[in-house]
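Forum > Structural Biology > Help requests

Title: Can anyone predict the 3D structure of Calcineurin-like phosphoesterase domain-containing protein?

Hi all, first post here. I have the sequence for Calcineurin-like phosphoesterase domain-containing protein but no way to get a structure on my laptop. I'd be grateful if someone could post the structure tokens.
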Amino acid sequence: MRCCRRIAAAGALLAALLSALAVRSSLAERRRPARSSLAGRRRPLRFASGGFKVALFADLHYGENAWTDWGPAQDAGSDRVMAAVLDAEKPDFVVYLGDLVTANNLGIPNASLYWDRAISPTRRRGIPWSTVFGNHDDMAFEWPPEWFSPAGVPPVQCPPPTSMSISDCSFRGTPRHELMTGEIIHNGLSYSSNGPKDLWPAVSNYVLQVLSQKKDDPVLLMYFLDSGGGSYPEVISSAQVQWFQSQSQFLNPNGRIPEIIFWHIPSTAYSKVAPKAKSEIRKPCVGSINKEDVAPQEAEWGMMDALAKRASVKAVFVGHNHGLDWCCPHEKLWLCFARHTGYGGYGNWPRGARVIQISEQPYSIQSWIRMENGTKHSDITLS
Ligand SMILES: *[C@@H]1O[C@H](CO)[C@@H](O)[C@H](O)[C@H]1NC(C)=O
Ligand SMILES: *[C@@H]1O[C@H](CO)[C@@H](O)[C@H](O)[C@H]1NC(C)=O
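Reply #1:
Sure, ran it for you. Structure tokens for Calcineurin-like phosphoesterase domain-containing protein below:
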């Protein structure tokens, strides 16, 4: 009896020690950026003589209604838009700005096939990229009501039954973490990251540094945030704000390096600076379509204040609203929409992509929109 009590006491002591260590290490992690958040395992991104050019692919919405003719046809359209933009612009980097797939409409058990199709035009051209999540990427499948009519469920791709399991046609979609892990392990050109675990359920939270052409100093920081939606509310959490503050403080303490920010769902600040819905876009805003109201995040937990406090933050880029493509000033930074790139998702406005051109010397950030048919418009200087 005595022996066992002593063992139990030793066990309790050990457990206490271990939990103290765990607290200590999680505090340390919070102070320093986790290695993985810098995607350190890839070759560093670097400016070239022409600067550093980023193309934004927003709201592709692959995989809709695959059992009809129009679903696959619109996916082929999205392939064409990306090919046209990549060949016209030859960007150094691509940002997939969320809603790559419409998971609530995918008639297959997982989203990874369509996710892979969305990134393949960029991969095929050897261009590095990264992704953030939109609200549709891990949505639960919505059974089409017409599948319950006499016509019944159309032939959809259910996995073949194995000896262990019967065929499972549950269309569970693919959770954020799994989509991201699949992308990263299969693609050496992906600079995406699962982000620090203490920010979950928000997953796509990470920073990329771009080095100077000649020296190994970072001259641009790109922050990626998960603005939620799908499996949890459409928000940027207070924990993400703290994460941003500690990352930016650590990587750029004196604000010497310009910073740009990417996430999917516009923050409420976008509604405040927006031109009146459906009116003409007037200076200082620049853009070509203003066809709907901003559909903002559900709450603001301090992200915009954190950004506005840093003079080094030049612009935020979001997707989500397919009928908006403007940039408007907000305090000392710019709030920009991308441009609806995919043929999936609502709206029939012509497709295109926002392009960002950063030059090192003299430093400038220019942006414009490149359309599927090759035309270019909405030129703006963001810094
Ligand atoms: C996803 O589903 C497709 C068919 O529906 C299957 O071929 C593929 O192996 C699945 N991938 C994963 C990662 O489960
Ligand atoms: C390209 O598309 C735009 C709409 O985005 C249209 O205004 C323009 O006339 C088209 N240009 C050509 C050359 O087809």
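The longest strand covers residues 352-359. Residues 350, 371, 373, 375 surround 2-acetamido-2-deoxy-beta-D-glucopyranose (ligand 2) (CB under 6 Å).
Shout if anything looks off.
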